[in-house]
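hiii so my PI (J.) wants the whole complex modelled not just the main chain, which honestly fair. so below is everything: four entries, each one labled with what it is. i double checked the lines twice but i was tired so who knows lol
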Amino acid sequence: MPWNLDDSHPIYLQLMERIQHDIISGVYQPGDKLPSVRDLALEAAVNPNTMQKALSELERSGLVYSHRTSGRFITDDSTLLKKIKTDLAQEYIGSFLEQMSRLGISRSETLEMIIQTIGGGDDDTNS
Amino acid sequence: MPWNLDDSHPIYLQLMERIQHDIISGVYQPGDKLPSVRDLALEAAVNPNTMQKALSELERSGLVYSHRTSGRFITDDSTLLKKIKTDLAQEYIGSFLEQMSRLGISRSETLEMIIQTIGGGDDDTNS
DNA sequence: ATCATTGTATTAATTGGATAATACAGATAC
DNA sequence: GTATCTGTATTATCCAATTAATACAATGAT
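here's the output for the full assembly
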């Protein structure tokens, strides 16, 4: 599965986001060992340095940490995971609402449009 | 008012978005003449070439058209304006929902979070 | 000890975007 | 007419970010 990267944004940012989401949504579990930089780079079909950059940036948030020679691991701090998840979600919501507002669409209108959009396909893929 | 451009995305894209939003939200009315490339560039504090690029890109969507020597104008086709507005809004909604989904947040959860966020400040700055 | 595997550092090359400096071609004002 | 305003085109240059190629250092396995 080629990681579906597009060329309009920096690749390392897309890698960061993808991995971050995989961690937060539970694809990687707390404490898990991540595949090596080189393996991940191979899987994503990018240069190892690019993957390295993405991962080292991710460390600044505390989501992952590295053990120099034994590999890189997901944090065990599930509280932190939860916090980052809600923070990120709030950030997404905020910029989405601002985007709509700059379009001249009020908050209540936005709400209506979302309900419209969601309405048809009712899914609930969550705990 | 310096146009509030940030350095993380290409400037010409930000210019496009800003102008597009100003058109769609009615800051510029249908049929209006836009300021000249040079004036807009001055106002935004960018190089005229950058502004030129933004505007010429904008023409591809049909939102504006130019008269070679007399200036550049907003389209008069209010149906088109409306369509572009809703298209854009739908696009924003779509990618927002996808973003949340990749975070592992279901659509109904997303809806709840939005309602939460909107809840407090009830505004309705629209027709 | 040897080898493979880990993350990391360093340096080079490439690329896209922004700017700059000009020039051209119509149209309008006077 | 002339001057001035439009949008547009062209070319060169600069710079920062991204990516690439490669080497290094520490650990663990055998």
